[in-house]
Specification:
The chain has an eight-stranded parallel barrel with strand order 1-2-3-4-5-6-7-8. The protein has a two-stranded antiparallel sheet with strand order 9-10. With 229 residues, it is of the alpha/beta class.
Length: 229
């Protein structure tokens, strides 16, 4: 099960969370979000530079936790060139599109980035869910995304911190794997363990593990992950 921790922006908190057994770390590049990375610094250094660890791994040394964790940039209806710039500056492994981005926009973006800027860049498309009818939107993106992220439908693009009815996903019959998002918290371990779907790839954690917007409770995350795995 993949574990993604999203909404990171504090350098020291990023380093601490990087020591946990997670797979993906999300950085929000949406100006209206309280977790907007650029609220703190315009420098790429806000996300620690693990290039030395990558060099070491290339020399055959043991893989570090920081090197293992993939970086996900989260965008909401942003200009493609802005996304391309963030991919380059922050060395992003994934781009998560959280707005109404079109299939054509994604195709053009991938042609621009892969392979010249970031070979093998992965795309996550967020689908906001309130009923099974919302799952129909997946069909528009099947050929251009690597993963879906199913989140709770709300009026805010930044998310509500509330859960939707996961049983709706019984009607998802696509081949693209997905992450569960929306209000997942420390008390949901057993609920996650009991959730069963052949394309369920992992979970996305954010506000329910925060001390304040953009700062995660490391001990709470550590306990949750140990119970889950």
């Amino acid at each position: 099960m993949l574990i993604k921790v999203c909404g990171m922006r504090d350098t020291e908190n990023i380093r601490a969370v990087s020591e946990l057994d997670i797979d993906l770390m999300g950085f929000i590049f949406y100006p209206k979000s309280p977790r907007f990375v650029m609220m703190i610094s315009s420098q790429a250094g806000i996300i620690p530079d693990y290039s030395e660890e990558r060099l070491k791994k290339g020399r055959g040394e043991e893989e570090t936790a920081a090197n293992r964790i993939k970086r996900v940039g989260v965008f909401v209806d942003d200009m493609p060139q802005s996304i391309v710039t963030r991919v380059y500056n922050y060395d992003l492994d994934y781009v998560q599109l959280h707005g109404d981005e079109s299939k054509e926009m994604i195709e053009n973006f991938k042609r621009t980035v892969d392979p010249d800027i970031k070979p093998g860049i992965k795309i996550i498309k967020t689908i906001s869910v309130a009923s099974k009818d919302d799952l129909q939107k997946c069909k528009d993106y099947v050929s251009v995304v690597d993963m879906f992220l199913f989140d709770t439908k709300c009026s805010s693009a930044g998310g509500s911190g509330e859960q939707f009815d996961w049983s709706i996903l019984n009607d998802y019959d696509g081949d693209v794997p997905f992450l569960l998002s929306g209000g997942i918290g420390p008390d949901d371990v057993e609920k996650i363990k009991s959730f069963n779907h052949p394309k369920f790839a992992g979970i996305d954690l954010n506000s329910c593990f925060e001390i304040e917007p953009g700062v995660k409770d490391v001990e709470k995350l550590k306990k949750f992950i140990s119970q889950l795995k």
